[in-house]
Design a protein that fits this description.
CATH class of the largest domain in chain A: Alpha Beta
Strand order of the largest sheet of chain A: 4-5-10-6-7
Strand content of chain B: 5-15%
Radius of gyration of chain B: 16 Å
CATH topology of the largest domain in chain A: Uridine Diphospho-n-acetylenolpyruvylglucosamine Reductase, domain 3
Radius of gyration of chain A: 20 Å
Largest interface: A-B, 32 and 31 residues
Number of domains of chain A: 3
Oligomer: heterodimer
Structural class of chain B: alpha+beta
Distance between the termini of chain A: 70 Å
Number of helices of chain A: 13
Helix content of chain B: 25-40%
Number of strands of chain B: 5
CATH architecture of the largest domain in chain B: Roll
Structural class of chain A: alpha+beta
CATH architecture of the largest domain in chain A: 2-Layer Sandwich
Shape of chain A: globular
CATH superfamily of the largest domain in chain B: Beta-grasp domain
Number of strands of chain A: 15
Strand order of the largest sheet of chain B: 2-1-5-3-4
Shape of chain B: globular
């Protein structure tokens, strides 16, 4: 089997070992998951491919498992699967984010591992994974290493994946409390994000976790805003004052590092974060008048 | 794969693809190499859904599938929805409802709707809208398409036409 690998431009991996052997043989091969990002570039001619390792049907990368308060998602889990009952009950914001990705056809093909591999600032699962402080299991034929997501996604479409490695799974804590993901694009559906925002509550710790998407080279945790809201919420009543909400939204907007591009101006994006952050908080907490 | 070939199973039959280039999309191979021109090529970036095909149990955009990676899977195109020369129930409903105008989006819609009705015999309007949200039609305004879906759903449930 291995001797034949070198001759085949497309290796359809049957197992994790098969994929890793192919990557060891050809470390620069393109790793193809759902293809929804890669094939757009290939079709346009902006990406040329010589060697491909297709991992879409590797059984070890499919499905998920629950271990105490942790959810382990195989890198091959699709957006459609994340919208399903089970994952959406454990990580609602991830399901909400998945629902904003492309069309049903795209969500049937695209995967969480692919979203991470692409590491686009507009990657829809990234803000929630950053807020959850997800841990990635990265595997090569030499073994595994684990990396927190903020050490994995390091720049615009740049990540810490080395030649010969692939993402095996993504582990996130299952929190108790409401979650909201919001996204703004040029229209209501099938859009690449102009600004996105995730807000998660942890009612055991009386804390919120939050993250801004598409308004910086990598997703941004607005830590000052998180602290302000965590301390400002009346957790017994699930209530927060208008003043705290306003201050939270302003701090979130301050934390953004947006750029002007063809999808929106920096000023618009900062404004959008202010709106989205307040909106998300209002969906979770009732607005009090204290 | 210049010195080699691979095999795609399309509509229940194996087809060999020879002398291909590694980056060819399934859509391109279906249309240009294997003689299945039903799936349409419009955006080539997964926006329009006119290239929709079913692979296994899921409808995907064939323009975003690397053809060489689709080996050993059941690929169903619009050509496979009914026996040659016959119309499927969804196709007939499209004609009866007047849901076809320019026709470019129609094959993709038919594949998507067939898949929907396989999985859900009685979809409500919102479910239908969600299911076809990845198939853009710029002619009809969708009204007659929605009507056709309900007609096909009713006939698949064995209900008689009024």
């Amino acid at each position: 089997m291995q001797a034949a690998l070198i001759l085949m431009p497309v290796t359809v991996a049957r197992s994790l070992d098969h994929a890793l052997a192919a990557l060891e043989e050809c470390p620069e091969a393109l790793i193809l998951a759902g293809g929804t990002d890669v094939m757009v570039q290939v079709n346009k001619g902006s990406l040329s491919v010589d060697q491909v390792v297709a991992i879409g049907r590797v059984p070890e990368l499919q499905g998920w498992s629950r271990e105490d308060d942790w959810l382990h998602l195989g890198a091959g889990v699709t957006y459609s699967e994340m919208m399903g009952k089970e994952i959406s009950s454990m990580v609602p914001a991830l399901a909400q984010a998945s629902r904003t990705v492309g069309s049903p056809q795209i969500r049937n093909a695209g995967t969480i591992g692919g979203n991470l591999g692409t590491s686009s600032p507009a990657g829809d699962t990234l803000p929630t994974l950053f807020a959850l402080e997800a841990v990635l299991t990265i595997r090569s034929s030499a073994g595994i290493r684990k990396l927190p997501i903020n050490q994995f996604v390091v720049g615009v479409k740049q990540n810490a994946l080395q030649p010969g490695e692939l993402i095996e799974k993504i582990s996130v804590p299952v929190l108790e409390g409401s979650q909201e993901f919001c996204k703004i694009g040029p229209r209501n559906a099938m859009v690449i994000s102009v600004a996105s925002f995730t807000l998660l509550t942890d009612v055991k710790e009386n804390q919120v976790r939050s993250c801004l998407g598409t308004v910086g080279p990598v997703p941004i945790r607005p830590t000052e805003a998180e602290n302000l809201l965590s301390n400002g919420v009346d957790w017994g009543k699930n209530e927060v004052s208008s003043e705290v909400l306003d201050a939270f939204a302003s701090l979130c907007a301050d934390a953004a590092q947006p750029i002007d591009d063809h999808r929106g101006s920096a000023a618009y994006r900062r404004h959008a974060i202010k709106i989205l952050s307040r909106r998300a908080a209002c969906r979770i907490f009732s607005e009090g008048n204290s | 794969m210049s010195n080699d070939f691979y095999t795609l199973n399309v509509n229940g039959k194996d087809h060999q693809v020879a002398d291909s280039w590694v980056g060819e999309s399934l859509l391109w191979v279906l249309r240009e190499r294997l003689g299945f021109p039903g799936a349409k090529n419009a955006c080539e970036e997964g926006e329009c859904g006119s290239c929709s095909v079913r692979i296994g149990e899921e409808v995907v955009c064939s323009c975003l599938v690397l053809a060489g990676s689709a080996i050993e899977q059941d690929i169903t195109t619009i050509e496979g929805l009914s026996a040659e020369g016959e119309l499927s129930d969804v196709q007939q409903a499209f004609i009866d409802a007047g849901a076809v105008q320019c026709g470019f989006c129609t094959p993709g819609l038919l594949v998507t709707i067939d898949d929907l009705l396989e999985k859900n015999k009685n979809p409500d309007d919102l479910t239908v809208r969600e299911a076809i949200s990845g198939n853009l039609c710029r002619c009809t305004g969708y009204g007659r398409i929605l009507e056709a879906v309900q007609m096909a759903a009713a006939s698949r449930r064995g209900e008689k036409r009024e």
